[in-house]
Amino acid sequence: MKSTDVIAAWGRILMGSTPLLSIEITRECPLSCPGCYAYNDSHLGGGVVLRDLADLRGDELVDGVVGLVARHRPLHVSLVGGEPLMRHRELSRILPRLVAMGVWPMVVTSAVIPIPHEWTDNEKIRVTISVDRLPVHHDVRRKPATYERILKNIKDCKVNVHLTVTQPMMERDDYLDEYFTLWNGRPETRSIWLSLYTPQVGEQAPEILTAESKQALIAKLPDWRRRYPKLLMFSKTGYALTNPPADPSQCTFATMSANYSADLKTRVEPCIFGGTPDCSQCGCAISIALHCLQDYKIKGPLKVGHFVRGSMKIGAFMNRFRPAHAKPARWDRADAAVKHLAEAPALVTIQNAGGSSSNLDAA
Predict the structure, then answer these.
(1) How far apart are CA 18 and CA 331, in angstroms?
(2) Tally of domains in the chain
(3) Strands 257-260 and 104-109: what pairing?
(4) CA–CA separation, 321 and 50 (whole Å)
(5) What pairing do the DSSP bridges indicate for beta strands 297-299 and 302-303?
(6) Strands, DSSP E only, in 230-301?
(7) Residue 221 in domain
(8) Do the domain assignments include residue 79?
(9) How many CA atoms lie within 13 A of 118 on its CB side?
């Protein structure tokens, strides 16, 4: 991404557009991963779950996604799921159209199906694969997206690798070192992203890091940053993990993004996790990265955070002069997001992404 792209994004923010967009392009997924937030009962607010939505296919999906992007005019679009590769034919039509619109698209996948080389050959398109744990544990939790299948499906591609750290990984002192060594050495790896498991308010799950484990992980970050050049993190990552945003209205990622589910109508609020995320335990890689950046000084006491919030206020003001159907930004609804959290039930139960199995060949 060039400086001219950043300037263009700033211009869009000032005019009231949303710089970041996330779209769950399908409700289907052949995996049944424990702790998956997309299939959490409260992900879409409790009235409906992802598997109940009427998702789209073919021209209807292609035109729907392109239309949604045209409406929001973002700089970056994340195409998630479900499993996005269940719609790989449509994605092969969507991605070049988004690039032609000046958008940087990213597909987040389990790599359960081969990734088309034309996607990763395009410098503006990013593919991020979720690989949780080392093979002996990952293959049990995320079958059929086993290591063997992943390595076969990303051959000769360049991908980001995303890891969500959970408490069982912290039970062995060198577990994450072994993981980083493996993926830092793979020729397919462009970069490695690190998140911590983010629970819902009141959730009790074995994936949640203990306070001691979190501090032990933070203590290792400087050494990991030095030893594994493909591990993407900032010098202030540890501070940001220790001091996450207090609520969605204070989260740069949440306030600068809009998130849609598989019918392209249902909104995912207050952030990509949906439901009632426990912000005090937020470990989202993008949220933490943007939280790091907001404390960087531009000049004197002026910080990036001041600059961003000021620009968003101008954008929210400009939105008042736009027709109701053309208002994509959600910055003027921060109070509603906080109210949504306050009124949420105290306990949320995570369920596995069960239900009917998906046919990989039918995508």
Answers:
(1) 9
(2) 1
(3) unpaired
(4) 34
(5) antiparallel
(6) 257-260, 297-299
(7) yes
(8) yes
(9) 9
* Residue 127 forms part of a structural domain: yes
CB contact set of 331 (below 8 Å; sequence gap of 6+) = 255, 256, 312, 313, 315, 316, 319
Checking if the pLDDT of 187 tops 60, the result is: yes
Give yes or no for residue 361 having a pLDDT over 60.
no
CA distance 222 to 340: 37
Establish if 347 belongs to a structural domain: no
Give 62-112 as a DSSP string.
Answer: HHHHHHHHHHH--SEEEEESS-GGGGHHHHHHHHHHHHHTT-EEEEEE---
**Domain that residue 273 falls in:** 3-340
> What was the pLDDT predicted at 348?
30
Q: In percent, how much of the chain has pLDDT > 70?
A: 80
Tell whether the torsion through CA atoms of 107, 112, 113 and 118 is positive or negative. positive
pLDDT of 15 > 70? The answer is no
Instruction: State residue 290's pLDDT score.
Output: 83
CA gap 98, 65 in Å, rounded: 9
Q: What is the pLDDT of residues 242-293, one digit of tens each?
A: 999 889 888 888 888 999 999 999 999 999 999 999 999 999 998 888 877 7
CATH of the domain at 234: 3.20.20.70
Q: How far apart are the first and last CA of the chain?
A: 31
The predicted pLDDT at position 300 comes to 78
pTM for this predicted structure: 0.85
Q: Which amino acid is at 242?
A: T
Asked if 84 contacts 25 with a C-beta cutoff of 8 angstroms, the reply is yes
Q: How many CA atoms lie within 13 A of 327 on its CB side?
A: 14
**Half-sphere exposure at residue 215, Cβ-oriented, CA atoms within 13 angstroms:** 3
pLDDT value, residue 214: 97
